[in-house]
Amino acid sequence: MKYISTRGLIEPVSFREAVMMGLATDGGLLLPQSLPVADKEQIAAWRGMTYPQLAFAVLSLYITDIPAQQLEDIVNRSYAVFDHPEVTPLVQHGNIHILELFHGPTLAFKDVALQFLGNIFEYLLTESGGKMNILGATSGDTGSAAIYGVRGRERINIFILHPYKRVSRIQELQMTTVMDANVFNLAIQGSFDDGQAIVKAIFNDISFKKEHHLGAINSINWARIVAQIVYYIYAALKLTNNGQMVDFAVPTGNFGDIFAGYVARTLLPGHIRSLILATNENDILTGFVNKGEYSLSHKVVQTSSPSMDIQVASNFERFLYYLNGADPDRTRENMTDFSRKGYLAFTPEQQKIIKKNFLSKTVSQPETAATIKAFFEQYGYVLDPHTAVGVNAGQTFVDSSCPMVCLATAHPAKFGEAVSRATGRPVELPQSLQGLDKKESRCEVIAADREKVKAFVASHGL
Ligand SMILES: *Cc1c(COP(=O)(O)O)cnc(C)c1O
C-alpha cells in the first residue's frame, strides 16, 4: 500500500515514509492510494477475533512494509498496556451502547493510537539508526498520550505545546509530572489553534524539519488514523450479527476520530449506517454538515469539553479530498481559499455526499451538563463531558432499527470538576490519577511565537 498527498504534489510514499513524514511535504495530508474494502470471508474471519488479533488483521491491510511478525508484536505490546481485557469494551445503557476507549495509560482514547505510534517510531528508528524530535500541539489529551507513548525511549525527544491554563488541571499534571529527560512541555500563551498553527508552520519549514528530524504525533499522522479504524470495526462486528447496521456518535474536534470512522465504514461495507458528528460550541463542522458551509465565523470558545475546543480541524482536508472526487488540484485550491478567506462553500451535489456520510449536532454546555446528570441518575453511569456531547447527539438521532454506539473518549475523572458540578457528587479518582498534584513537575511557559518554539526545539533537540 502506497500513500498519496491530498494536494497531489509528491510522489507516492510507503507507510514507513508516511509515518516519518507526518504532514506531506507539499503541505497536504497523506492518504492510502486506495481505501481497502473487506470481502465477506475477511469479515467472517474477523468476527471471532480478540482486539489485538483484529488490530493486526486490519492494520495489515494498510501497512504492507513492516514484516508481519514485527507488526503483530508491535500491536500486541501496544494493547497489552490497556487495563481491560477487551481493550475497548462496549457497555449498554438503555438504547445507547458506550464504547469505552479510555482504558489506556492516560485515560483518553488518544492512547489507542499513540501507544501504537510510539512503538512504530521506536521500531523504525532502531532499524534505521536514526533519531527524532517529536513536535506536537495538544488541546489536552494528545499531549499526555503522546508523552506516555514515548517517555524514556532512546532516539526520541518530545516537545508538546499546550495552551497555558486552558487544559484541565489533571491534563496539565499528566503531562508536566513526567520527568523523563526526553520530555519537554511548552505552555504557550494562546489557544490550541495558535499552537496547532505554530506546529503546522514549523512542519512546513522543510529545511528546519529535516535538520531537526521532526516527527509528528498529531492526527495529521496517518498512523494515528489507521489505529483508530480498528475499534469501529470491533464494535460494529459485535453489534451486527443479524445483518442490521450500526450508527456511531463521535465527539469531534480535529475530525481525526470521525475520519477513522469514515475509513472504517468504507472497509466494512453495509455495516455502518450514520456517523454522527457531535461538537461543543466550537461548531464549524456542524455548519459544514448541516449547511454545507465551512466557515471560521467565530473564535475558539472555552468549554467544559476542552479537547474539542478547536475550530480549524486538521483532518478535514482528508475528507475534503474525497468530497472533491479525489481531485488534489481542487483540494489544493480549496485549502488556499480557506486560508485566505476562512470560508468554503459546497455545491448541492457535494452537500448531498456530506449528508450521506454524516449527521451533526452542536451540543451546548448546559445540554452537556444535563446529559451527564440524566445519564447518571438513570443508569448510575458517569460520562465525561466529551462523551456526553456525543451521547446527547446520539440520543437525538437514535432510532429503533439500529444500535447507537457512542464513543466514550475520556474517563470522567480527567474532567472531574465539570462532571461533579453536573452530578452533584465528587468523581472517584482512578489509581493512576491519585497523588498527581504532589508530584514534581516541569514546564516552560512561552509566547505563542513560532520563532521562540523553533529556538527551543533547536537548543533542546536530539
Ligand atoms: C481529542 C479528543 C476528542 C476529539 O477527537 P478528534 O479526533 O480531534 O476529533 C474528543 N474527546 C476527547 C476526550 C479527546 O481527547
Topology:
Blueprint: E1 3-5, H1 15-21, E2 30-32, H2 40-47, H3 51-62, H4 68-80, E3 90-93, E4 96-100, H5 110-128, E5 132-137, H6 141-150, E6 156-163, H7 169-176, E7 183-189, H8 192-204, H9 206-211, E8 214-216, H10 222-239, E9 246-251, H11 256-267, E10 272-279, H12 284-291, E11 293-295, H13 316-323, H14 328-341, E12 343-345, H15 348-357, E13 358-362, H16 365-379, H17 385-397, E14 404-408, H18 416-423, E15 444-447, H19 450-460
Parallel strand pairs: 4-14, 5-6, 5-8, 6-7, 7-15, 9-10, 9-14, 10-13
Antiparallel strand pairs: 1-2, 3-4, 11-12
Helix pairs in contact: 3-4, 3-10, 4-5, 5-6, 5-10, 6-7, 10-11, 16-17, 16-18
CATH topology of the domain at 90-107 and 223-423: Rossmann fold
CATH top level of the domain at 90-107 and 223-423 is Alpha Beta
Distance between the termini: 31 Å
Taking the sheet with the most strands, its summary is:
6 strands, mixed
Strand content: 15-25%
> What ranges have pLDDT less than 50 throughout 5 or more consecutive residues?
none
Supply Rg.
20 Å
Heteromolecules bound: pyridoxal-5'-phosphate
Structural class per helix/strand content?
Answer: alpha/beta
CATH architecture of the domain at 90-107 and 223-423: 3-Layer(aba) Sandwich
Shape: globular
What's the count of strands? 15
Count up the helices: 19
Spatial ordering of strands, largest sheet: 3-4-14-9-10-13
What's the helical proportion of residues? Answer: 40-55%
